[in-house]
Amino acid sequence: MTLALALGRRGMGRVWPNPAVGCVIVKDGQIVGRGWTADGGRPHAEPRALAQAGAAAQGATAYVTLEPCAHHGQTPPCAQALVAAGIARVVIAADDPDARVAGRGIAMLRDAGISVDSGVCAAEAVRDHAGFLLRVTQGRPFVTLKLAGTLDGRIATATGESQWITGPEARRAVHMMRARHDAVMVGAGTVRADDPSLTVRGMGIDRQPVRVVVSRAMKIAATGQLAQSARDVPVWLCHGPEADVTDWTAKGAVSLPCDVASGQVAPQGVMRALAERGITRVFCEGGGMLAASLLSAGLVDQLVVYTAGAAIGAEGTPMLAAMGIDRLDSAPRFALDQVTPIGNDICHIWRRI
């Protein structure tokens, strides 16, 4: 199952709206088939592993990281494929709460006389499939918030200079994180200040994440890298209902009107709009107002902080905008998951409590 989970992770950021599932088929103590969800979500992991196993699948055990589907969508049910191949036993890591599955896959297998065990490496599988599970159960994607700053929590000098606070090794690691998410998201201030492309570069990948801009009024000139490349790599605009986005949509960007609350695009509405279009994992790269709004709304599932060995001082731009917190017990809290030196910088990864 550990191998199946590792295989499934290869699909992260590449298979939405489907889950990134892994499957390993074992017979007589040897692996005879391996598979993971293909780019775009099809074929699924199980039929890919079965195709590799061929006749050896007869009487074998299949290890799958999520309950096999039991419905006819754009592909036949994976549970039925396992039955037809003559699999004798299926070991499942996590159940699928999708109403079209939700125990039906297991029932289909057992009705065919296949032995089924579930809950093996369940905690690891739930973490890997968190985006898919949240989209199904809560109507929102998994959100990673990335912050990068100095020892004193600044992201730019008083004059706005910010490139580069962290080193090349940290920036390369960020590109890898982008590649493992379905969408990369920023606010209007970041677009105006940095003119980012938000693409994954230097990784040799051919499937880019969707680029999402969150702005109530969308008062951003459609002349930068995002607008100019919108027909090549998707750009989605999450904006208030009164915003004029015609210059952007003329260049290929997609308009997603969202509710406004307290003068900003409501973060819950942004996440709902993205989930409705199939996004399961979002990588937010700021800026400070967007980051603060996501934290205040309790929508950050994973916090990634890159810290550089430099100090700017109080006149610099802080990582986060004001959050209106006057009591410590109302501050968002996270549990430390990992600390990794990267070049001359340090990466802290935190998970929501």
Beta-strand proportion: 25-35%
User: What overall geometry do the principal axes of the alpha carbons give?
Assistant: elongated
DSSP helical segment count: 12
Largest sheet: 9 strands, mixed
Alpha carbon gyration radius: 22 Å
- Strands in their spatial order, largest beta sheet: 11-10-9-8-14-6-15-18-17
Helix content: 25-40%
* Unreliable spans: none
Structural class, please? Answer: alpha/beta
N/C terminus separation: 26 Å
Helix and strand succession?
HEEHEHEHEHHEEHEHEHEHEEEHEHEEEE
How many beta-strand runs? 18
Mean pLDDT level: 94
How would you describe this protein?
With 353 residues, the protein is α/β, with parallel strands linked by helices. 27% of the residues lie in helices and 26% in strands. The chain has twelve helices and 18 strands. The protein has a nine-stranded mixed sheet with strand order 11-10-9-8-14-6-15-18-17. Strands 2-1-3-4-5 form a five-stranded mixed sheet. The protein has a two-stranded antiparallel ribbon with strand order 7-16. Helix 4 links the parallel strand 4 and strand 5. Helix 3 packs parallel to helix 4. It is elongated. The two termini are 26 Å apart. The relative contact order is 0.12.
